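W.,

You were right to be curious about this one. When I first looked at the sequence I had no strong expectations either way, so I just let the prediction run and decided to look at it fresh. Below is the sequence, 252 residues in total, followed by the output.
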Amino acid sequence: MPQIRTNIAKEKLRKNQVVTTISGVQDADVIDFLGPMGFDAAWIEGEHGAVDWDELGDMTRSCDLWGMTSITRVSANEPWLITRTLDRGSMGIVVPHVNTREAAEQAMQSSKYAPLGYRGMFGGRQSFGVPDYFHTANDQTMVIVLLEEAEALKNLDEILKVDGIDVFFVAPSDLAQTMGHIGDTGHPDVQAAIDGALSRIVAAGRTAGTLVNDDNIESYIGKGARFLMTSWNAWVTRGAAGFLKKASDAKV
């Protein structure tokens, strides 16, 4: 008899292991290309991307095929939107602009069945053939809240009290914008705010996440971040620039 699919990323976090997540994914073929590389999860872009409901189903299936956790960023903290995203097969939800404890509670409760929440009673693709899905789905459904505004950091202690949230993700770009340093995530004040938030999350016994790159990944792991998201676009850009420079510099 089929059993519910294990959320690999969530299992690693339970063991205090680092979870690597590739972001900017908007196509099932891209997931198939990235799948063999060994990332734990794919961040499906439903807020800034053009992913529709049909494509989302295919993308979550691609993640299942390659043993990656499908994590979808929704465009709003709306119960119907979160429910439908999970019903389309996503194993995790990323909720943007969570600035208050009440918003964090809504994000969690929208993602979980009773008694933890009020997710609509339909299982979708991940439930097919799983007789106890409604009793086990909460354990495998991942909830990530984005702390991407200065207001969120002011309310962080209260937000951290909400149970059922797997990752408290500090988002640098929007945070910098709300701090008056648009486009400058490296500003000392922004970096201090990020480091302070990560420290508070870890000190509260919760799981911290943030955006990383090749240059700072070790640093953020050392600061306690365990859910690490990175973009593959930068690697393509860097590789393309190097290739074109060699072509331009070559003697003919």
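Here's what jumped out at me. The CA atoms of residues 7 and 82 lie 17 Å apart. And, maybe more interesting for your project: The chain has a mean pLDDT of 96.

Coffee later to discuss?

I.
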